[in-house]
Write a structure and sequence with these properties.
Elements lengths: L1 H47 L3 H9 L1 H10 L45 E3 L12 E9 L6 H12 L12 E4 L7 E6 L1 H8 L10 E3 L2 E5 H6 L8 H16 L39
Parallel strand pairs: 2-3, 2-4, 4-6
Antiparallel strand pairs: 1-2, 5-6
Helix pairs in contact: 4-7
The structure holds zinc ion (ZN).
């Protein structure tokens, strides 16, 4: 009995499923019919008016959005700063031509060469009256240096009690005349290399050739690591060393580690255990 009743219930459920299945299929036929009809109508509309569908869609979305945008005030979006990869620049940036000096904080120019020299005008009297050697200061145009300040630094060095005047019967007088005994020139590495020929300054060091003392602007600006940021002291060294050549001195090696380097040592290339020294009277440093 139990089995029969279960069987009846099972067949009833099966009939129900069959009915439901037929009903579902009926529904799905209707839906398909509607879809096909709708597609046919839409197709006809699109064939007759190819732009009709697009216009309708545009009206629903695009044009509404556009007209909404048109009625709103324009929104000004500031450009987002993007970090510039400096590696893509092939030329160094230069200040505008109308600027006499670069803006505050800008990197000074010590390398972009104009190839033209300008004489610093003015004079500085000798500090004594023996064996006067006249010199004039010339600076390559376009370098970020104040001519008067450079000339003052050079004259102070040459007339310093620790300088060559303490060892030689010489006194230095600055002039801006073309017949000066010595030209002290501050130039870019490029022009330094040219003015120093036949010596090889390699874009890095300074020289003295004939009546020219050529100071490499890169060294004048940044000195060398051995001077540990003592830029003024290195400038003293640079002037004294190259003018020392003009007075007839050759190079000297480091005599003993941890003693002051001779001013005629090539200190720019290394100290070989000696200590930085800018003055011919070596014990004075
Ligand atoms: Zn030298």
């Amino acid at each position: 009995m139990t089995t029969r009743r279960t069987g009846q219930r099972a067949s009833t459920r099966a009939r129900g499923r069959r009915r439901a299945g037929r009903h579902s299929r009926k529904k799905s036929y209707k839906a398909q019919w509607f879809s096909v009809t709708a597609l046919a109508v839409l197709g006809t509309v699109m064939v007759v008016h190819p732009d009709a569908g697009r216009q309708t869609l545009a009206a629903q979305f695009g044009e509404v959005t556009a007209s909404r945008e048109a009625t709103l005030p324009p929104v000004i979006v500031p450009p987002t700063p993007v970090p510039t990869p400096t590696a893509t620049f092939t030329k160094p940036q230069r200040p505008a031509p109308s600027l006499i000096r670069p803006p505050k904080g800008a990197k000074p120019n010590v390398t972009v060469s104009s190839g033209k020299l300008g004489v610093v005008p003015g004079t500085d009297k000798a500090t004594r009256d023996v064996g006067t050697m006249t010199y004039r200061v010339e600076i390559e145009q376009g370098l970020s240096f104040n001519g008067a300040a450079v000339a003052a630094a050079v004259h102070k060095t040459l007339t310093d009690p620790r300088g060559w005047q303490a060892l030689h019967q010489v006194s230095f007088e600055r002039t801006d005349r073309p017949d000066a005994d010595l030209r002290i020139i501050l130039a870019t590495p490029t022009l330094t290399d040219k003015l120093c020929l036949p010596l090889d300054t390699g874009g890095e060091v300074s020289c003295r050739v004939e009546d020219r003392v050529v100071l490499n602007a890169k060294r004048w600006m940044y000195a060398v690591p051995a001077y540990a940021g003592k830029i003024d002291l290195y400038r003293n060294y640079l002037v004294n060393h190259e003018v020392g050549h003009a007075l007839g001195y050759g190079h000297s090696p480091c005599p003993e580690p941890n003693t002051p380097a001779p001013v005629m040592m090539q200190q720019t290339k290394g100290l070989d255990g000696c200590l930085p020294n800018a003055w011919p009277t070596t014990k004075a440093t």
